[in-house]
């Protein structure tokens, strides 16, 4: 059997330097855990535009469709702000999501004990927090037609359409229930069924899928505005939250901010199973390309490294190895190592991007 | 000149008992500040249904249109859960908002120093917090057509339409700029212009109104998901936030929860100026009818009393008297008086709804 394949797209800004640390981790798993990957690397975003005049070539797109998982760094930068909308760096990422049909966006919000003080919330509210928000990513009001700014009489009208089909809701609901079974077996679905018919359908379909296929999972429903409140008040009440594209956009960012350290947060975007049973998958850190600190060694590689841990868990069914990697990150943080974005405690000297990567690899060694 | 007129609609659950305390305050301003109001009282919600078979009679609706301001308690309760959608208690409130065309929903999020510990956020993050969220209330995706659950092939599709006209955006933007001028002169407008054309129009129109009519006000724009993050991270960076109906629904509740005590928060819903120059106006607490504690003396009357303070400020141009009332509330809290919803500190005995109202009136006396 051939090795599983990974396409690495470091992208722009700090993308290449955080990805260099992920490469160390990938190499470690190959050398020490007998888990070799066939790794290829390519361009996405501004650097792809510079080289080819497009943020994602057809060749790279085709490669992404063929591999077992895509690992992406970050895209964009001020250099590309004046580009036409159609070739902006972000379009490369959107094309990947769309053509791979990555409908389930997994956004964990985890608070590392050593970093609980970084949160604006009280320590007891966030310490040990471990929730997973699943955002529907390929439909809803960001994609529905009709859309646009139109002239009506003598004024303009802005229109977008929230539109969900039963099958779109059903597949992301299944993702949530499957995930919950591997966690604390609880799903909370959020919408605004009290004022939106698309929310009524969302609630009905989630309940139907539950009753027919996942009756063992604890399911609750909450209005999205109450959800925003409850995430703020006592986030540990949740295990898995499933919600639509727009509500998920806000709630996943809100949940991320609860942890206080965006530089730590990974994400996965999953689609339908491929012929080999693995889901179409793209893994990337939540943070952006941070062009202001690119090349200074200040970037935090942890979010990107934890994105690879998600790949181990969700694409390669290596949950134990994913946990090993997450534990290594935890151990490094418990030792007090901090990149520049995590300063705040008195007298701590920051380590560089590479030093953080090396320290995590050393902890992996120590785990054997 | 005749007295300004107030229509009081206590509603259901704890509505009547908190409104009874507001009546004490209204009477105090009549007796001690020479500010007599012509007060009439009527039914809304479940109690109106019980009496007349409708949650709001045409006669009450007509009265609401004629008075200078409407003050509402709360509506709803389990007794009415099985009623047809068209006569549910909430429909009475929605009819008021709709027929009075109350497009600007003012949702202050203020943290009282004495209550800062109730927040899930760190004390320094919320102590002294004083922001105002203005939510567009009569348009957007909760009202746009087409809407519904339709059959398409052999599956259901849920559809709602986000729709904003230029004039709808312009009028609520003006509300925000006017308000900012009386506060810290800063407005932050939130939308998702990066992915929604209705957001692009929102941003453009807010900027145009600013440049043409309010160039003295500091205006910034933020994506709504970043707004949710920033509200959680450091809410004091904001003064006035203006946003659409859906984003405002989530963000105003999120901001309310930052303060940690929903029982304290008032709201105003304002429409266009009437012939006398006063805006159409409805004032109500953010909390609900809390049927579980109705009649037990446990209800906190402060949110409803502070709603009357908003009426003094926004309908009757008595900002100084509004501040006097707010200061009285502050003083009572600083003395340690707590209704049952505000317990948590050791050894504090709760006061009743009426005792809280009396204490606030006593502080008003002391202010003279
Ligand atoms: Mg977002
Ligand atoms: Mg709400």
Automatic annotation (TrEMBL), chains A, B:
Catalytic activity: (2R,3S)-3-isopropylmalate + NAD(+) = 4-methyl-2-oxopentanoate + CO2 + NADH
Needed cofactors: Mg(2+); Mn(2+)
Site keyed Important for catalysis: positions: 142, 192
A GO term, aspect molecular function: 3-isopropylmalate dehydrogenase activity
InterPro entries: IsoCit/isopropylmalate_DH_CS, IsoPropMal-DH-like_dom, Isopropylmalate_DH
Binding locations of NAD(+): 77-90, 288-300
Co-factor: note: Binds 1 Mg(2+) or Mn(2+) ion per subunit.
Protein name: 3-isopropylmalate dehydrogenase
Annotated gene: leuB
